[in-house]
Amino acid sequence: MPPDGALIADSPAADTQPGDTQPGDTQRGDTPRSDTQPGDTPRGDTPRSDTQRPDRPSIIAFVGDQATETALREGLLEAVPQGFEIRRGTVRVAMAALHKMPTPHTLIVDVSGEDQPLSALSDLSDVVEPDVRVLVIGDRDDLNFYRQVTRGLGVAEYLFQPLLRDMVARYFGPLIMRHDPVTEGVQGGRVVTITGARGGTGASTIAANLAWHFGVEARRHTVLLDADLYCGTAAMLLGAKTGAGLRTALEAPDRIDELFVERAAQPVSKRLHVLAGEEKLTDTVSYSPNAAARLLDALRRRYNFVVIDVPCSALPLHRELLMLAHQRVVVMDPTLASVRDTLRLMALPNGPMQPRRSVLVLNRDNLPGGLTRRQLEEGLKMKPDVAIPNLPKVVGHAASMGEPAMAARGGFRTGMMQLVREVAFVRLLDSGAPGSAPATGKAGRLRRLLGLTS
Length: 454
Ligand SMILES: Nc1ncnc2c1ncn2[C@@H]1O[C@H](COP(=O)(O)OP(=O)(O)O)[C@@H](O)[C@H]1O
Ligand SMILES: [Mg+2]
Prior knowledge:
Elements lengths: L58 E5 L2 H10 L9 E4 L2 H8 L7 E5 L6 H11 L5 E6 L4 H10 L4 E4 L4 H13 L12 E7 L6 H15 L4 E5 L7 H4 L7 H7 L6 H7 L1 E4 L2 E4 L15 H12 L2 E5 L6 H9 L2 E6 L3 H11 L12 E7 L7 H8 L5 E4 L2 H10 L9 H14 L16 H9 L5
Parallel strand pairs: 1-2, 1-3, 3-4, 4-5, 6-10, 6-11, 7-9, 7-10, 11-12, 12-13
Antiparallel strand pairs: 8-9
Helix pairs in contact: 1-5, 2-3, 10-11, 13-16
């Protein structure tokens, strides 16, 4: 337990009036990425420091009252002699502000008076870049709470009210003075892979739209990674650029660091970036073993969501990405060949970070001449988790314009939103367990066609 004295305020939250002050989140927008900033540091071999990402403020605090503000300012005088920005507001106010602005390297929030401080802090972690150093002030003084906040949520330090200058100097000061990047306690972003049972099922379309939703609509820091380095379409679908960075990362993983990721990922919008290549068909990319793990480590520190378009192949890169995901998504269309390959993909063993099976998306539902839903479910012996209708005009038009098809209301968006709910949260699925659909004579024939005996 860090605080010196068990000085518990009688009514710690009494003067916390979240509504009576301006949240102050209007002062600055999400500044553009560093490559468009005037006065940017050269994107070369800059030493690792807070100046690496000029768009990220060094430190910002959100506190509930004047006394806390004073203790914080005075306590950190030595650590931050130049001063820093302190805004008045709850953790919810902090969240609203951080929705719109770059994540500081160090964030101080005050959960005093909060009914559910743990869930508030957990919600906050969704809108900030995962490698932020979070220091928390609150009004609970029990050890259990301290443990949950620090070990459970990855908060660097917790101090309880009434906040005293000396406590701040002693426990927050050294953490702030350390300019090295946060290496411990980073929970990291969520990795979702999208794989088509076959080419043409719409996997890339779905990956691009999912990333667009997370990055643009939900304003989570998101990167779309295209694992097809030769003919991938992820960048094209979002109107982004491809580059040589991804290949370099996979061939020379030692070069992957925060700055590398920053340079290699191309912006689509402030919180949506794309990492994709367009290698010559005559070139061989010499994939270095474990490069995928190294790259994902770096990406997970920077982004809340890493969406990966992974082709169905036996290449080591693709196999490793599927194993490293938190959630896999398999996309099929209503064809016999798709049913066969879906069964093979669904049968792959789960990776160490996958508590549940792949989410199955049936795309181009009602495709003229395709299998009926009944035939399909009988062949699969399960129901798809998400169905997206066949909408060639809507999807085709969007693809030609380099726009996300889900921006418009309609069947495509409805299906995509269902997928968002399936992949954004860890939750056990109980429906669709193999064997849930009854096998009829027809299914038997279908499964025999696929070479399946049961
Ligand atoms: N729901 C849909 N309805 C109609 N056409 C679709 C749908 N989803 C994708 N498509 C189209 O199918 C084609 C293949 O999509 P793509 O995303 O490249 O598939 P994959 O990555 O699986 O090969 C594209 O022309 C795309 O516009
Ligand atoms: Mg594709």
